[in-house]
Write a structure and sequence with these properties.
It is a single chain. By secondary structure, this protein is of the alpha+beta class. It has a domain at 16-60. It has three helices and three strands; from the N terminus they run E-H-H-E-E-H. It has helices at residues 19-26, 30-38, 55-60; strands spanning 16-18, 45-47, 50-54. It has a three-stranded antiparallel beta sheet. Strand 2 (45-47) and strand 3 (50-54) form a beta hairpin. The termini are far apart.
Length: 68
Amino acid sequence: MAIQTLDERPGPARRFYRVKEAAAVLGVPQRTLYHLAETEQIPCRRLGNVILLPVAWVDAEPPLPRRR
């Protein structure tokens, strides 16, 4: 029987991205996601001052083209 180290053990599945991480995945400015979250145009949760976006929504959305 092999012993697993802490790094090899599967952790809980990620459920949320912070805005900075979601912006990098989607290829959009952070400010755009903050605006969409503040105007309730995208699904999000607030944890104090932190806005969290569901991983399922971020992964399902196609990357948005960047505006110049």
